[in-house]
Amino acid sequence: MEVRHGGVDHPAVRELVALHRREALASTPADNAHALDLSGLQGPAVTFVTAWDGAHLLGMAALRDLGDGHAELKSMRTHPDHLRRGVARALLAHVLALARELGHRRLSLETGTAPMFDAANRMYEAAGFTDGEPFGGYPPSPHNRFMTLAL
């Protein structure tokens, strides 16, 4: 597995971003679905990474700098053809290392509470994330779960 930085313009990445957004909107009310679109993933405060096996896209993740030593994990998604192979864990480990390298002291994330998010929530808990308060302008909602990890 090779982790690459950038690559939002690759057709396979565009398809995975579109799938990620469609499924987020299908499982969470629109006002509570916060998945970034392609332009959001290319923002100046965002580092976008993908995982590949040769020419096959395995997954994606992003790190958004929130300032003051705080960053956010965004757009964590494994390609449906590559689930349960450790892709998300590898991407999470890469993003955690990157956040530390960039000097962040805390990494937070917002995820859903619908059943489709259960596996991701278990992975975040296993990595040491704990429930926290809404951050970064997100409103509190029963459809969203906010988690944080001291780095």
TrEMBL record:
EC class: transferase
EC code: 2.3.1.-
PROSITE patterns: GNAT
PANTHER family reported for this sequence: AMINOALKYLPHOSPHONATE N-ACETYLTRANSFERASE-RELATED-RELATED, BLL8307 PROTEIN
Any one GO molecular function term: acyltransferase activity, transferring groups other than amino-acyl groups
SUPFAM superfamilies per record: Acyl-CoA N-acyltransferases (Nat) (SSF55729)
Organism in which the protein naturally occurs: Sphingomonas aerophila
Descriptive protein name: Putative acetyltransferase
Keywords (A to Z) from UniProt: Acyltransferase, Transferase
InterPro entries reported for this sequence: Acyl_CoA_acyltransferase (IPR016181), Bact_Acetyltransf (IPR050832), GNAT_dom (IPR000182)
N-acetyltransferase domain boundaries: 1-151
